[in-house]
């Protein structure tokens, strides 16, 4: 689990910002130019580029420049690794809750058998 920590740290750091999450949501529909990504945002183009730089450093997006246009696309494998990590944590938590529920049921059965009320 710790071996993938640097990659996950960068991914979660990038995902912590709502602007970056918005950019990822837009890119989930397909690649977009930097201008297309910047159009709905109330910020300067250099600020947009800073967010894209953070997303690229995290591995969540990749970009390619053709002529004067830089096109950004989602790196689905990197996002899949984040999802896998979250799924495993959720499964562990659900297993703990199942064991706790079983324990509570055992306590209730024991107390009913002993004639005590809960």
TrEMBL record:
Cited Pfam families: HTH_20
InterPro entries named among the record's database cross-references: ArsR-like_HTH, HTH_ArsR_DNA-bd_dom, WH-like_DNA-bd_sf, WH_DNA-bd_sf
SUPFAM superfamilies in UniProt: Winged helix' DNA-binding domain
Coiled coil: none
Superkingdom of the source species: Bacteria
Domain HTH arsR-type as annotated: residue spans: 1-94
PROSITE patterns according to UniProt: HTH_ARSR_2 (PS50987)
Classification via NCBIfam families: HTH_metalloreg (NF033788)
Full protein name: Metalloregulator ArsR/SmtB family transcription factor
Species classification: Bacteria, Pseudomonadati, Pseudomonadota, Alphaproteobacteria, Sphingomonadales
